[in-house]
Amino acid sequence: QGQLVETGGGSVQAGGSLRLSCVSSEYAVGTYCWGWFRQAPGKEREWIGNSFTGDGKRNSRDSVKDQDRFTISQDSPKKTLYLQMNGLKPEDSGVYYCAIGSGNCYRASSYKTWGQGTQVTVSS
User: Fold this and answer.
1) Bridge partners of 21?
2) Which residues fall within 8 angstroms of residue 74, CB to CB, at 6 or more apart?
3) Which residue did the predictor score with more confidence, 55 or 38?
4) What is the DSSP secondary-structure string of 25-67?
5) What span, in angstroms and rounded, lies between the C-alpha atoms of 7 and 22?
6) How would you class 42 by CB atoms within 10 Å of its CB: exposed for 0-12, middle for 13-18, buried for 19 or more?
7) What distance in Å separates the CA atoms of residue 95 and residue 10, rounded to the nearest whole number?
8) pLDDT tens digits, 11-49
9) Backbone phi, then psi, for 92, in 5-degree steps?
10) Tens of pLDDT along 62-91?
């Protein structure tokens, strides 16, 4: 599936916003889960939401855990998945990963290709 590279993390105060990007080195052949996960220290990797590779319709089949604050979109020609996060809270802090996989999109075990992660720190 190639490589995934996340960017856009950083430190913000509570209530702030960040947009994370995930660039894939290759176009996916077929339809796969393309998801965002978060991992806080000492905790398991947590599903945030997902889109699907090859889906040129923005947010057409997205599923997002916290839709009031987070939005997933993709730019298919740029092979890029985005995670827009608004109203950030300290509990949103952690390393954010994007990944591509198949099967149950809510499970981290379904994903075979992972990025290196980008750190998000939200201070109160």
Assistant:
1) 7, 82
2) 34, 51, 55, 58, 80, 81, 82
3) 38
4) SS--SS--EEEEEEE-TTS--EEEEEEETT--STTTT-EETTT
5) 7
6) exposed
7) 10
8) 999 999 999 999 999 887 778 889 999 999 999 999 999
9) -85, -5
10) 567 787 899 998 888 889 999 999 999 999
The owner of tokens 């599923």 is 63
- What are residue 78's DSSP bridge partners? none
Q: Please list the residues that pair with 48 across neighbouring strands.
A: none
Q: How far apart are CA 51 and CA 100, in angstroms?
A: 10
111, 1 contact by CB (below 8 A): no
Give the pLDDT confidence score for residue 65 in this predicted structure. Answer: 75
